[in-house]
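Weekly structure sync - notes
Attendees: PM, LS, DV (DV joined late)
Agenda: review two folding runs queued last week.

Item 1: First target. Sequence and structure tokens pasted below for the record.
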Amino acid sequence: MPLDRDHVLRTAAALLTRKSTATMDEVAKAAGISRATLHRHFAGRDALVRALEALGIAECEGALERARLDEGPATEGVRRLVREIEPAAGLLAFLYSENQLFEGDGQNAGWERIDARVTALFRCGQDAGEFRIDLSPAWLTEALYGLLAAGAWSVLDGKVARNDFTFMIAELLLGGALRREES
């Protein structure tokens, strides 16, 4: 019976999202395969993390497509993006904490493509007068990533309801935490 690679990767993502220090033995057990089978397909943790990176990039690019960032106001594009990326937020939170993915010359070009599209969304919003111009599009992009990771961890820890994920992230990013006086 051939290995269901997608099942193994999604199981590994779910486990590593909850327990980033999980061993390859724990990943194999969670996936219902032997450690030897896991190692035949992923030579070690680094190979598994790189495969999860490819899955995360594919999930992000799919979310970007489904979010239709070029339709309507940029604020609505941000809300759609957060909603579309939510199912992969746990995996992305895990990957966000894997420093080896973002250091040196070996960085996957997929992250640059994603950054460029999200940054362009914020730049368009600034050009349209929707977003503050005193915060760079690159900073708004990084802030979104940080909020997505924090939201995923909060949902996993049971501190936040999954149904509140999109609202909390989009509204905090778009509105900021500063309370404004009612006019």
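Item 2: Second target, run right after the first with the same settings.
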Amino acid sequence: MYKLSHLLNTFAGIELKNINLMASFGNAFSSSIGKKLIMGITGLFLILFLIVHCFINSLIFLNDGGLTFNIGAHFMATNWLIRGSEVILMAGLLLHIVQGLRLTFQNQASRPVKYAVNDGNANSKWYSRSMGLLGTLLLIFLIVHLSNFWVVSRFTGIPTTDSNGHEDLYAVMRETFQNVWIVVLYVLAMASLAYHLLHGFASAFQTLGWNHKKYSPLIKGFGVWYSIIIAILFAAMPIAVHTGLIK
């Protein structure tokens, strides 16, 4: 009887520890620090994705009628590793958006009454204080972008093929960017992306605790160049197609 009682108490203790561990884990990711940690991890993942995405899209600058670009797009659409990564990417993107909105609302709720004198530039850049707005603009752009290209290439299908027999996603791009308002939206969204990255790049490393007196300035400097180059390349694509610089 004693052994049975001892065994039950042992299992009860283990179960209680598991519950406490799960509660602590949940609290860690629901706290302000936990939310920022998720933003940092998902942000770095999206930064890496932008490098790959920008490289593939930049193949249109070869101006070969989109043949090389379509090869890259075909690889992205058929490679099982890439397709599997898309699931992780979408989950990370959604998590990044949700946590960003939660942090924005949380910051606004913690300061319901604005200061009588607010010199924000004394402590931070305006884009650092406007991540919620910049993120919302990017969300609107993302919905348009995914409906124009990702949904077409992954679900509805592309009706035309190029001379290599690949689906002609470049033809879809040319048709989409004939609309000047789409081009304007892309350019404005890329300006928002640049400012979003200017804050988010260095902030992600800082949030994860990857700070060093020697290397942090290098990370910050690289982040500035990364933000500018990525935004300019993405903005140049619809402009070049719309103006006929790329055939």
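Discussion on item 2: Residues 6-26 have pLDDT under 50 and may be disordered.
Action: LS to circulate a short write-up before next sync.
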